[in-house]
Specification:
The protein has 688 residues and is mainly alpha-helical. Among the domains are: 177 residues, no CATH class; 140 residues, Orthogonal Bundle (Tetracycline Repressor, domain 2); 99 residues, no CATH class. It has 22 helices and two strands. The chain starts with a helix and ends with a helix. Keywords: Coiled coil, Exocytosis, Transport.
């Protein structure tokens, strides 16, 4: 800085040049001093270069030889490298395949199960596949495809299992009558067994009750799990002979489709959907089952098929209730049963009202009892059915009354209204066995002899007993007390006596062209039937074991019925006699202007008196015991004679007082007086 600041730049350059020359001289001196060594070094370097060239040639040659020799090794090493790489890849592949193969196997198994319709196992396989196997290999593309297909597979399983359920529901709908028929046969066998056991208590030790039989049957047959390979709804069962043991009702049904579908929907989290669907479909089927055919009342088979379908429906529901957890519950079953009970009772009331055959009504009652017993065995309340049977009992009584009305008409129309002739002891005992009649005097009489009554007496008496038996048949198995049975029989018998038989007797008495002899015989017959009423009382007491002295026991009104019929017959006799008298009086032809009377009574009056004498002879010669004879001749005959005389006298007085008779002669009055005296004389000498 001081050089540049001052004016010594030239001087400085001079000094610098001098310095450089000094250093050059020193370098030159030093080089001169070391030049020989440099030459020697160059010489040595030249020697080294030769040697180096030789070494280079040797190295080159050695390298060439080494390269030639290493090519095969390099190839082998490359091959080894590739082998090691392949080995490593294979090992990795094996490891990955070890993870993938179970997935593929499970998927293949799933497809096989789907193909063979093993839907519940398929669903389990799908669960394992989704949660256990697929997460381990989720990064593979095929696994992603599987994962995407899982919801579709679940939906497919749901649809297929629902289709199986629909097939099952359709099958049990079609086979409900077969299931019900089998259940009712089983109930009938159990009832027969109970009857045998009640008669022979000692053999009851080894028998099972119906509930026990059903329970054991359920345990043995219904162990089918949802893993079952079969999906059929109904098992084929051949018709068994009556002597062979009837299979349990549940033995006819394979419930595995329901179980599988229930488990599948439970696993899929849609159990509530399944329950609602099942109950909805079964309610629809219940309404169809409870709809009776329009011609059900025509034959017993129509009722039987109707009952079989109802029983079959509730047998299935009862089994579902006890073998599944919550698919159906007691409230649902009770609701269905209440609906079924009301509709069944309404249908029976409607259709049974069309029945006019008492045999069909009785068979229907027995079928209803079996229907009620069958369902009662499965725990359903059936009291309303038995209450309805009491209503049908009234209808049954009406049909019996109509039938017996025809029976009584046939008996009364075919009767000859003459005493029954007896030619030997055998016939006598036969009639006495048919009708309670005892007469010591008649027994002492030799054969041939006659009963005082005609044939319709024992026939009517036996038909009354048959009617009582028919009423008793209806009361069987209705769980009624002896008093209730007795009251029912007595009320029905009273209707038979006071309405049916009374009307038939009245019709016979009131019909045209009935003779006095027939009317007299009807009086005799009704008298004997009246006496037999106490034996009918005893007959009812014997079959019901209810004493007539019991407080609420209804009395038979047969005595009143036969008394009324007898009185009607008596009145008819009096009326007929008066009509006959009027007919004779119409023949009277008095000449009220005659000057002289005749020498004898008028011809019409003679004929009239002759008719009355022959008529009263019928009363005086009545066959039979003393009581009847005295009653007929003493009461009926005397009353008839008095009625006839009174009517005759009144009619004769009317002849005199007729408006057409304006004047009379003494001769006419004498003739009229002669006729009146003839009447007095003849009537006074008549044996009555």
């Amino acid at each position: 800085r001081s050089v540049y600041d001052g004016e010594e730049h030239g001087r400085f350059m001079e000094k610098l040049e001098a310095r450089i020359r000094n250093h050059d001289r020193e370098i030159e001196k030093m080089c001169n001093f070391h030049y020989q060594g440099f030459v020697d070094s160059i010489t040595e370097l030249l020697k080294v270069r030769g040697e180096a060239q030789k070494l280079k040639n040797q190295v080159t040659d050695t390298n060439r030889k080494l390269q030639n020799e290493g090519k095969e090794l390099i190839i082998a090493m490359e091959e080894l490298k590739q082998c090691r790489l392949q080995q490593r890849n294979i090992s990795a592949t094996v490891d990955k395949l070890t993870l993938c193969l179970p997935v593929l196997e499970m998927y293949s198994k799933l497809r096989e199960q789907m193909k063979s319709k093993r839907h519940y196992p398929a669903l389990k396989t799908l669960e394992h596949l989704e949660h256990t196997y697929l997460p381990q290999v989720s990064h593979y593309r095929f696994c992603k495809i599987m994962v995407d297909n899982i919801p579709k597979l679940r939906e497919e399983i749901k649809e297929v299992s629902m289709s199986d359920l629909k097939d099952f529901l359709e099958s049990i709908r079609k086979h409900s009558d077969k299931i019900g028929e089998t259940a009712m046969k089983q109930a009938q066998q159990q009832r027969n067994l109970d009857n045998i056991v009640s008669q022979h208590p000692r053999i009851s030790g080894g028998k099972k009750s119906k509930k026990e039989v059903c329970a054991s049957s359920d345990l043995e047959v219904k162990t089918t799990s949802p893993m079952s390979e079969q999906d059929s709804g109904i098992l084929d069962v051949e018709d068994e002979d009556e002597d062979e043991e009837v299979p349990g009702a549940q033995d006819l049904v394979d419930f595995s489709p329901v179980y599988r579908c229930l488990h599948i929907y439970s696993v899929l989290g849609a159990r509530e959907t399944f329950e609602n669907y099942y109950r909805k479909q079964r309610r629809k089927q219940a309404r169809l089952v409870l709809q009776p055919p329009s011609n059900m009342h025509e034959t017993l088979d129509g009722y039987r098929k109707y009952f079989n379908q109802i029983v079959g429906f509730f047998v299935v529901e009862d089994h579902i209730l006890h073998t599944t957890q919550g698919l159906v519950n007691r409230a649902y079953i009770d609701e269905l049963w209440e609906m079924a009970l009301s509709k069944t009772i309404a249908a029976l009331r409607t259709h049974s009202s069309y029945c006019s055959d008492p045999s069909l009504v009785l068979d229907l009652k027995n079928l209803i009892v079996l229907f009620a017993d069958t369902l009662q065995g499965y725990g359903f309340p059936v009291n309303q059915l038995f209450d309805m049977l009491l209503e049908i009992q009234d209808q049954y009584s009406e049909t019996l009354l109509k039938k017996w009305s025809g029976v009584f008409r046939n008996i009364l129309d075919s009767d000859n209204y003459s005493p029954i002739p007896v030619t030997n002891e055998e016939i006598y005992k036969k009639i006495v066995g048919q009708f309670p009649f005892q007469d010591a005097e008649l027994e002492k009489q030799p054969f041939p002899k006659k009963f005082p009554f005609s044939e319709f007496v024992p026939k009517v008496y036996n038909q009354i007993k048959e009617f009582i038996y028919a009423c008793l048949k209806f009361s069987e198995d209705l769980h009624l007390s002896s008093t209730e049975v007795d009251d029912m029989i007595r009320k029905s018998t009273n209707l038979l006596l006071t309405r049916t038989l009374s009307n038939c007797l009245q019709n016979v008495i009131k019909r045209k062209n009935v003779g006095l002899t027939e009317l007299v015989q009807i009086i005799i017959n009704t008298t004997h039937l009246e006496k037999s009423c106490k034996f009918l009382e005893e007959f009812i007491t014997n079959i019901t074991n209810v004493l007539p002295e019991t407080v609420h026991t209804t009395k038979l009104y047969g005595t009143t019925t036969f008394k009324d019929a007898r009185h009607a017959a008596e009145e008819e006799i009096y009326t007929n006699l008066n009509q006959k008298i009027d007919q004779f009086l119409q023949l009277a032809d008095y000449d009220w202007m005659a000057m002289e009377p005749g020498s004898k009574a008028s011809d019409y009056l003679v004929d009239l008196i002759g008719f009355l004498r022959s008529t009263f002879a019928v009363f005086t010669h009545l066959p039979g015991d003393v009581d009847v004879h005295s009653t007929m001749s003493g009461k009926v005959a005397q009353t008839a004679c008095m009625s006839a005389c009174k009517h005759l006298s009144t009619s004769l007085m009317q002849l005199l007082l007729e408006a057409e008779v304006r004047q009379l002669t003494l001769g006419a009055l004498q003739q009229f007086n002669l006729d009146v005296e003839e009447c007095e004389r003849k009537m006074q000498h008549h044996p009555i």
